[in-house]
């Protein structure tokens, strides 16, 4: 049985050219990039090259990149690092305020919840029924003591794209005004420079499809994970715009300019660099068109062949790869297992959610009833999926849904 | 979270799945909000036990809306219960069902409780008649 993979939001296979550039760094170029001798320098040359590739992708300076183990670490570092750095110099001891959204990944929500328990103030923006935040609500949420905004670029479950550039612009305008007001005062009346608002976005699910130009999008901090972009697991990065206050979480080695200690994951970093290089604009556009076509077939096929389905992905406002459905009257996990037995891999929402019995907080936040949320399946396509694979799915899925529905009591 | 072979077998081809049209008792537990609903149908017979006659489960069927574990639990439960007296059936506990399935992932243990609760409710409903 030839297996089919429709779970690219969970992870992607490593591209062959990515693996190829990584391999020498496990063996021949095994040196520690921090070592001064030739072995170390050889490894460091590779890391420098990856840093340059990442900088090109993000349109930033190489030293604005902090390599991490992935997006979870990058998100934690961004949130705790920035808020704690600002709080450290918070002479007036005022309560600092963070804005995020209800649909963030747990690796954003949980560190923010931790800060909230420590006494920081938090606002969670809601989303509209298409899974997108409302910039007007965001504007109203900003306060005089707001220091950090963390809004994901693309939601991992339904694929909704957030108005990152608009948010970035709003923040920039407020920051510019704060500085102007301060500058316009008489020097003896200026007092301390005002704290600005820093903008973090978790771009984990966006990098494959959308511009991560940090200047164009007015971004201060941005997280990326290698394994979501046909690179290796265990390698990711946090972009930290120069001048952004940040305190390291992991200490004891002075790596990454004291922002993240720990021996560099050389091979992983080199793979990440190559994966980012592969995401050049031309390839991304071509890929987006291709995936989008396949997704349209998938959506049409499901809607035509299966009654009582709800499409939760707003195709006008999402990546081309996501199609999140609710199959009424069936539990999502049963569909997942039945499809898996037929050789097709999908997800009920997110891989992380599979250990919890709770309905997806994202789908519920979009106003979908809990019982409908429980019957959800996420298809996330990748660049190697084919029309034939979708046709196979459309053949296999309807009888599965019929069988499971027949088992359910009438309610 | 891996399911055992037994769970997958029951999930693929559940035993005693369906409805008993003129059931003597019905029990239902769970709700849509928690994601699992189990409904048990019973047909009751009488067994001679010395001078007394005892109720026993002549036939049992289930309908389940839920995850693979919930469906497998329903199937394994009905297998085990069929033919038992009420007393025997009420003595079955969740560990028995979990063992029949060769184990269940920890977050799914509650599914086995739900099946038993539906059975207990069906028996209670019969006794109330």
Descriptive overview:
Chain B: One of its GO terms (biological process) is iron-sulfur cluster assembly. Chain B: Residues 3-129 form the NIF system FeS cluster assembly NifU N-terminal domain. Chain B: One of its GO terms (molecular function) is iron-sulfur cluster binding. Chain B: Pfam families: NifU_N (PF01592). The complex is a heterodimer of chains A (411) and B (129). By secondary structure, chain A is an alpha/beta fold. In chain A, 41% of the residues lie in helices and 13% in strands. Chain A has 13 helices and twelve strands. In chain A, helix 1 packs antiparallel against helix 8 (266-277), helix 2 (38-58) packs parallel to helix 8 (266-277) and helix 10 crosses helix 13 (387-407). The model of chain A has no long low-confidence stretch (mean pLDDT 95). Chain B is of the alpha+beta class. Chain B has a three-stranded antiparallel sheet. In chain B, helix 4 packs across helix 5 (109-128). The longest helix of chain B is centred in the C-terminal third of the chain and has 20 residues, at 109-128. The A-B interface holds A 329-331, 333-334, 337-338, 341, 354-357, 359, 370-371, 374, 407-409, 411 and B 1, 3, 8, 11-12, 14, 17, 28, 32-39, 63-68, 70-71, 107, 110.
Low-confidence stretches of chain A: none
Query: Helix-strand pattern of chain B, N to C?
Result: HEEEHHHH
Mean pLDDT of chain B: 92
Instruction: State the largest interface.
Output: A-B, 20 and 26 residues
Strand percentage of chain B lies at 25-35%
CATH superfamily of the largest domain in chain A: Type I PLP-dependent aspartate aminotransferase-like (Major domain)
Please report the first level of CATH classification, the CATH class of the largest domain in chain A. Answer: Alpha Beta
Portion of residues within helices of chain B? 40-55%
The largest pleated sheet of chain B is described as: 3 strands, antiparallel
State Rg of chain B: 14 Å
> Helices and strands of chain B: which structural class?
alpha+beta
* Global geometry of chain A: globular
The succession of helices and strands of chain A, N to C, reads EHHEHEHEHEHEEEHHHEEHEHHEH
Indicate the overall shape of chain B: globular
Number of domains of chain A: 2
Strand order of the largest sheet of chain B: 1-2-3
Helix content of chain A: 40-55%
- The assigned CATH architecture of chain B is Alpha-Beta Complex
CATH architecture of the largest domain in chain A: 3-Layer(aba) Sandwich
Domain NIF system FeS cluster assembly NifU N-terminal (chain B): 3-129
InterPro entries (chain B): NIF_FeS_clus_asmbl_NifU_N (IPR002871)
Pfam family, one (chain B): NifU_N
Protein name (chain B): NIF system FeS cluster assembly NifU N-terminal domain-containing protein
